[in-house]
Amino acid sequence: MGIPRLARPVSFIETQTRLRGSDDALLLIVEELCDRIDAVEPYVKAFIPEPERRQRLRLEARELLARWAKPCDRPPLFGIPLGVKDIFHVNGFLTRAGSALPASLRGLRGSCSGGPARSRLPDRGKDRYGGVRVRRAGPTRNPHGLEHTPGGSSSGSAAAVACGTCLLALGTQTVGSVIRPAAFCGVVGLKPSFGRLSSGGLVFYSRSADHVGLFAQDIEAIRAAARVVYGHWRPSLEVPDAPLPVIGVPEGPYLAQATDLALSELDGQLAALAAAGYEIRRVPAFADIMDINQRHRMMTSAEFAAEHSEWFSDQETAYRPRTAATIKSGMEVPAAELLAARQGRTALRKRLEEKMRAAAIDLWASPPATGPAPRGIDTTGDPIMNLPWTHAGLPVVTVPAGLVPPGLPVGIQLAAAYGRDEGLLTWAEGIADVIGGD
User: Fold this and answer.
1) CA 290, CA 55: separation in Å to the nearest integer?
2) Closest to 192 measured CA to CA, from 424, 374, 5
3) Fewest CB atoms within 10 Å of the CB: 93, 108, 336, 408?
4) Which among 168, 178, 189, 105 is positioned nearest to 136, based on CA atoms?
5) SS3 category, 78
6) Predicted local confidence at residue 97, as pLDDT
7) Which residues does the chain have with pLDDT short of 70?
8) First-residue to last-residue Cα distance in the chain
9) For 60-81, how does the pLDDT look when each residue is reduced to its tens digit (9 = 90+)?
10) Whole-angstrom distance, CA of residue 140 vs CA of residue 169
11) CB 98 within 8 A of CB 32
12) Cα(304)–Cα(97) distance, rounded to whole angstroms?
């Protein structure tokens, strides 16, 4: 079973052009967006239910037009339909964060304190009308196969962009919750260098690992959004020293965690890049991947337990069994081990960047998941291929690379040195031109 066949969604860049053409364009886009949501949402379930969504979007569109009356004055992301993972505080919405805890207990009453959903987007005149809430992991389905997971926990963000029911979305990644769902749904996902995108207004899982990320249809859209939402975007670094990066492949036990299919797809992608003039170097890496995996899980569970310590003793029955088990495990982590795990993030980052310098490589390439989206929606797939890059805090982008039977997306995961987000996206655009799937 699949979603209804609809016209291909208009691209981010085409929408930007339309929005600068006339005031009628924004109102028409609202109606087109709502029609599309009405058609696919019963199948995909990407959004938090909102009976008056169309009326709200019409009202906010008119407010935007009144605020930015002259098309020439409109900021870069004016009117772009935005999805926001239900883990950010946004004015006018109840923040559920996938939890059954009472909103009054957790302070989830929908006020916003300066995160990217507010301080970077509305405050710079961005899409206020399109701040539609998207679902967290759970009932959301993969648009490419409704019986398959879209990945999580930023499931709604990835699925909505894949459907064209929003053109840009915010998500978060603690292990693999941006890169993996982007790969499963066939869209571009960006996990910035740790700390480069504000986490204000976020309901935290792990303050040492939570990254705010972006989803869009293509690299061009991600670059356009990143130039605005990053606090200190450096245009000079968008033009790297080398037009074609040297690509490193992290050989060893890390890659062995992926399936044969994922590794075969990676080999095919690398062969295509080599044929296009890219140099590929195999570099031994992550000999201690099992220790890295264990350290990251221990650190995040301990910090998750700390976030919930005030409520768990009184509200344990409101937590899902798996979540409660994670909190109990995290409570048992000694302070010295947690400190060592936090220090291990910086140590891993330095080791990876030393390997990059020694091998003279610019990017790491690896599978964004152990394989395509697995069947079923009870789980969201294994984030193990994303974990070390998240732990090290390196910037990562996933580029779609076509479909495998039975029509499920696959992609490639690209990581750069810390703080080199601008160059990463420039290089990723060229790589997408070589391997990008339609």
Assistant:
1) 51
2) 424
3) 336
4) 178
5) coil
6) 65
7) 1-2, 96-138, 437-438
8) 21
9) 999 999 999 888 888 999 999 9
10) 15
11) no
12) 13
